[in-house]
Design goal:
CATH topology of the largest domain: Beta-Lactamase
Number of helices: 11
Strand content: 15-25%
Structural class: alpha+beta
Largest sheet: 6 strands, mixed
CATH superfamily of the largest domain: GAF domain
Oligomer: single chain
Helix content: 40-55%
Number of domains: 2
Radius of gyration: 30 Å
Distance between the termini: 108 Å
CATH class of the largest domain: Alpha Beta
Length: 371
């Protein structure tokens, strides 16, 4: 009879052990359900992105805070710098996106994934993984490296890091991460294609800078932004002097070369945040955000001087080119309640009138008109 209590005690221990195991399974299931919901929410945000810059913002900021990843970087293959240019044109400076690396060569990324190109989880390897993370930040102790692959083409890598050694282990949440990588790769591929298509309609085919349509779209945006900041917005109209004579004397091929070179010189004299466009024919337009009269005139004079000093070569001969520049400025500390569209129209009219005066006064000069 003494064996029965002992047997009963063993059975109770087994029941307790099974109960603990069952609770552990339930806890894992609940935890996985929470993770799944987070991934689903992130996936919906990625799929609903309207631009490449927004997509990168969601990954580098939103996803990191949602999942508590300590470090995160995205590496994208950008051999021809087209992604860089797309982001630059959209107003999102890639040079200021610390977590984003646009690389012309991703051979080291391909070596990490090998032929399988599946997510890699495990301990951080300094020699192997260091190029994937930021040198000015603390290196992680464990990593999850996700290949961004689309149609058998490796677009890049999403690199997640944790300061906890046990956070990323082989086999842990691999399915979730692999699915995330597939969704992100698809979204990136689509966003890049969409941005290229959009930019094609907003870019001047000859000079490679923005066209008038792009300029008109950005005008109201810049007015609203500078109005909110209560600062100044300046506009420059630039016209190549005697351009018809250049075309008639040397041919349209030389005229095209002059236009491309002038566009290149103009772009080199302004900031990446400024808007420059071929406004029509031989005329260019610039919007200088947060720039008052003094700064605008200084930039206009610099553009005029650099073009006058440049030798435009044709068949061994130098062609001298000059430009006339009209400048106008809106100070939003003095104009609060006007409609952006009307402000924009007034700004362009004043710059155009200033350009006309520069032409009438003998060309190769800058004229500023007060508003």
């Amino acid at each position: 009879m003494a064996a029965q209590p002992k047997q009963k005690k063993l059975q109770l221990n087994e029941v307790e052990t099974l109960k603990q195991r069952l609770e552990s399974v339930y806890d894992d299931a609940r935890n996985n359900e929470k993770i799944l919901k987070k991934f689903q929410y992130l996936e919906l945000k990625l799929l609903s992105c309207s631009s490449l810059s927004e997509l990168i913002q969601i990954i580098t900021h939103h996803s990191r805070s949602t999942f508590g990843w300590d470090t995160l970087t995205i590496i994208l293959h950008d051999e021809d710098r087209k992604i860089y240019k797309l982001l630059k044109e959209s107003g999102k400076d890639p040079d200021k996106q610390e977590a984003l690396q646009l690389l012309p060569d991703i051979t080291h990324v391909k070596h990490i994934y090998g032929m399988t190109r599946k997510p890699t989880l495990g301990k951080f390897d300094l020699e192997k993984h260091r190029p994937l993370f930021l040198a000015n930040q603390k290196y992680p102790r464990s990593v999850a490296l996700l290949p961004l692959q689309r149609n058998n083409c490796l677009l890049g890598s999403l690199n997640l890091g944790s300061y906890k050694l046990e956070r990323f282990q082989k086999g842990s949440a691999t399915d979730f991460l692999q699915h995330l990588a597939a969704v992100l790769a698809t979204c990136l591929h689509t966003a890049i294609a969409h941005e290229r298509l959009k930019q094609a309609g907003l870019t001047d085919a000859l000079t490679g800078i923005n066209n008038r349509r792009f300029f008109d779209q950005r005008l109201e945006e810049e007015i609203s932004r500078n109005k909110r900041l209560e600062t100044s917005l300046s506009c420059l109209f630039i016209d190549i002097d005697h351009f018809k004579i250049i075309n008639d004397s040397f041919g349209h091929d030389v005229g095209d070369t002059v236009l491309k070179k002038v566009a290149e010189l103009v772009r080199a004299q302004i900031r990446s945040i400024d808007v420059v466009a071929r406004y029509g024919g031989e005329e260019f337009a610039i919007l200088l955000g947060q720039s008052g009269e003094t700064k605008a005139i200084e930039i206009a004079e610099r553009i005029r001087a650099i073009i006058a000093e440049t030798k435009f070569k044709n068949a061994g001969n130098n062609i001298n080119i000059t430009v006339s520049v009209g400048v106008s400025t809106i100070n939003f500390q003095q104009r609060h309640n006007e409609v952006p569209k009307l402000i924009g129209r007034h700004l362009l009219q004043r710059a155009d009138k200033a350009l006309y005066q520069a032409k009438q006064n003998g060309r190769d000069q800058v004229i500023y008109l007060e508003n």
